[in-house]
Design brief:
With 199 residues, the chain is mainly α. Helix content is 70%, strand content 0%. It folds into two domains: 1-58, no CATH class; 63-199. This is Abcc12 protein.
Length: 199
């Protein structure tokens, strides 16, 4: 579970800025991640200075070197378990993205639930209240606030799932491209084959 320690720190609602020169995305808390607040200072500086001199530092967990080592380790485990002929890159890919994908699916499911409750339950209660001759104004305001809360949670969870899925895809892309480059570099003699036919 130690490899999830950096990711779980993003679940803390508010975090103090780390004194170590880490990437801002890794130092962001839950609220900063959901609203992408950690990007604000970079966007403001880019707007004010009109330049690209102060770009945010890339996360070491998103870089090629870190992810290609993990992908190759999973591939080697797959080869040891099933042999080279029976090894499946699809299984390795699923193991690489499994945890973050399942969490993103869970968050998306929660978003769908909140959206359904807001549309099917809360809206129905509001319509019933409007049609009722004994409708209370304060009750109506309460249902409006509940609807606002349901829609707000739905949007926030969708945003969170998108951010998590985007970083997952970014990490796999980095690992896959680095693996292909390593494959080409290790190939000493291509002969008459072009790079698209190397296996």
């Amino acid at each position: 579970l130690s490899r999830y320690s950096a990711a779980t720190r993003n679940f803390i609602p508010f975090r103090k800025t780390d004194t170590i020169d880490n990437a801002s995305v890794d130092n962001a808390g839950l609220c900063s991640t959901l609203f992408s607040c950690w990007l604000t200072k970079y966007l403001w500086r880019a707007y004010r200075d009109n330049g690209l001199t102060d770009l945010p530092k890339s996360s070491p967990y998103d870089c090629c070197d870190y992810n290609v080592q993990r992908l190759e380790a999973l591939w080697n485990e797959e080869v040891v378990r099933n042999g080279l002929s029976g090894a499946s890159f699809s299984r390795v890919t699923w193991k690489f993205i499994r945890t973050r994908t399942l969490i993103a699916l869970l968050i998306t499911a929660m978003s769908v639930v909140f959206g359904f409750v807001g549309s099917a339950v809360v809206m129905r209660k509001m319509l019933e209240l409007i049609e009722s001759p004994d409708g209370d104004v304060m009750t109506g305001i309460g249902w409006v606030l509940v609807l606002f809360l349901m829609d707000g949670l739905k949007v926030l969870l969708q945003c969170w799932a998108w951010i998590m899925s985007y970083r997952t895809a970014q990490r796999f892309k980095a690992a896959f491209i680095a693996t292909m480059y390593r494959k080409l570099i290790r190939t000493s003699n291509l002969g008459n084959k072009d790079s698209g036919k190397v296996r």
